[in-house]
Amino acid sequence: MASYYSGYLSCEEPHFLESCSLCRKHLGLNSDIFMYRGDKAFCSKECREEQIESDEAKERKWKKSSRSLRKNSAETKESVAGNTVRTGTLVVA
Hints:
Elements: E1 34-36, E2 40-42, H1 45-73, E3 76-80, E4 83-87
Antiparallel strand pairs: 1-2, 3-4
């Protein structure tokens, strides 16, 4: 059976409403679809919650590493013979 959404796409990738973004379970035409961030569809509240928790954990980790990076790259002031010298290194990933 051809996909309901296949007429809208010309590429090989399936439409985001065809399967759960987490477990890849097929989303039927008459089934509930749980959306997250506007472009991610899920088959259940549990799958959506798991994705939300994963994204929040990644965000916390990113913020923590970002703070650490800013701390390490911040300019430090050193006094050399009465003059203020600013030194610092910026690391970009």
